[in-house]
Amino acid sequence: MNETPHWLAPEEKAAWDSFIRMQEKLIGRLSRRVQSESRMSAADYIVLANLTEEGGGRMRFLDLAKLVEWEKSRMSHQVTRMVKRGLVTREECADDGRGAFIVASPAGYKAIEDAAPLHVENVRRLFINALTPKDLKTLAQISNQVLEHMEKQPD
């Protein structure tokens, strides 16, 4: 059953390669800026931003891992590091002995409140300012289209 791969056409490959280069460079620069300006790792920022924005400061461990698209082990290691630094706490779940909640601590809230304006400033400088309002609308539509398509695909 060795089927020949359905290789990307030149215009498909160009679009994919450009997207990957842009995404990697943008995430790399944003990560370095967060680290240098707030002394918080990009992973700390991702966890705290999602925890405070989506979860009201408290989320089930597995829900948080799914939200940020991380494996359980990666999330576990990250949370352990953040607990040691006082950014989050881990609370056992009364309903489920195997489950746990991750809770942003006061220090975690302070860290994300300090870092978020710097992050938004860099997102605007590196990404938003390069695009027109029409470009942003088109990009949002394309991104949502791909996300909807991915939700229909098996992992």
Record keyword descriptors for this entry.
three-stranded antiparallel sheet; globular; 155 residues; Arc Repressor Mutant, subunit A; 6 helices; mainly alpha; 3 strands
Total of DSSP H or I helical runs spanning 4+ residues: 6
Order of helices and strands: HHEHHEEHH
The radius of gyration over CA amounts to: 19 Å
CATH superfamily of the domain at 37-122: Winged helix-like DNA-binding domain superfamily/Winged helix DNA-binding domain
Strand order of the largest sheet: 1-3-2
Structural class: mainly alpha
What is the general shape? globular
- For the termini, the CA-CA separation is 22 Å
Low-confidence stretches: none
**Major beta sheet summary:** 3 strands, antiparallel
- CATH top level class name of the domain at 37-122: Mainly Alpha
Q: What CATH architecture label of the domain at 37-122 applies?
A: Orthogonal Bundle
Integer average pLDDT: 93
Helix percent band: 55-70%
Question: Describe it for me?
Answer:
- It is a single chain.
- The protein has a three-stranded antiparallel sheet.
- It contains six helices and three strands, in the order ααβααββαα.
- The model has no long low-confidence stretch (mean pLDDT 93).
- By secondary structure, the protein is mainly alpha-helical.
- The protein has a domain at 37-122: Arc Repressor Mutant, subunit A, CATH 1.10.10.10.
- Strand 2 and strand 3 form a beta hairpin.
Provide a quick synopsis of the model.
By secondary structure, the chain is mainly alpha-helical. It has helices at 10-38, 42-54, 61-67, 72-84, 106-126, 133-151, and strands at 58-60, 88-92, 100-104. The protein has 6 helices and 3 strands; from the N terminus they run ααβααββαα.
